[in-house]
Design a protein that fits this description.
elongated; alpha/beta; 407 residues; 4-stranded antiparallel β-sheet
Length: 407
Amino acid sequence: MIKRDLFGSTEDCSSGQSKRRGDDGFAVSRGPEARESETNRADMNRAFPALRTRSAVRHGYLYFCSTTASSSFSTTTAAPSEAWDGRFRLHKPRGQHLLTNPRVLDAIARHAALRPGDAVLEVGPGTGNLTARLLASPAATVAAVEIDPRMVEAVTARAADLGLAHKLTVIKGDAVEVEFPEFDVCVANIPYGISSPLIAKLLFGPYRFRTATLLLQKEFARRLVATPGDGEYNRLAANVRLVADTRLLMDVSKRDFVPMPKVDSSLVEIRPRVASPEVDLSEWLAFTRACFGQKNKTLGAIFKQKRMVLELFRRSQISQGRDRKGNARGIFVSALDDDNNEDDRDKDDDRRDGPADFSENEVVVFKELIVGALELAELAGKRPSKLSNDELLRLLRLFNQRGVCFQ
């Protein structure tokens, strides 16, 4: 009897010899040692799939298998993978870059430090590479906010195939616009284009949470975690430091994404402070905008400019006769705008609402109030990028006590 194995050899069962056709097409006799080698190779071939399956199950990647052999086969071969399968087009201009490196995904879930019973908020789940790990964690629920209906379908199917659909709620909509449910931890690979407004929404909105572990554009992350005295310290960092502590966790190569973006990313942890300084948030944000619009100048040079004096005089006059509660959404949308040219935008802000005319003497007196506050704080010769928030808060209070308002 002649049998043919998976490697193409033939075995004569009666003689105990096996034959393989060589490169020249002629049969080559193979003895017991060769047959034993091929048997070992076949055993390894059978072992590798089992190893891969055990590894995948350990990380929660595979679907749960059915009881029938046919369904088990189809489920295993259709197991979701971090590698992008190209099922639909990804739009780079919309920030659709899927993180596909399993080690990085595992590290993000680990840094999130999820606890039993946690409610997790994920922004931009994509096809569910990170979502699968969050669902497999001790957390009780995961709410994923996604604007692309194709991604909504993909992440929903991923959760169902993992048998964890009961833990997932998908909210279809723009993350900057929709209301978030209550959550304990936010974990997200944020589209670069909404980094500032989304973080501002988290920190200056009505939400109370333990931590946010966010994957951000590397340059933006560096500005976010900068401290006073750093060359990158700016309005963004000052405003975040008012209400939260930040730290850089790790860098992530652009090669770990599909499609590959132009820049690397960094993972950052944001931890809101239990108690924030007692300050009018709208006033603080307007104050930092004035300070950091020309952050490399001294505060004396910034606030003694004729244009700045006139602008603050106008705002102070308006502020005395209006309700200063403001619009909550309007506050957080622009809270973390760290554009270096933001001071230029103040030139025409609400100019039509200012007083039609005023005396030169009034402006002179008002400027003396500004100079007096700077001298009392001993900050006229200091640059805002070198100052702590405590120093800036003290100066703001001195300004406000003298009737100098920034809204």
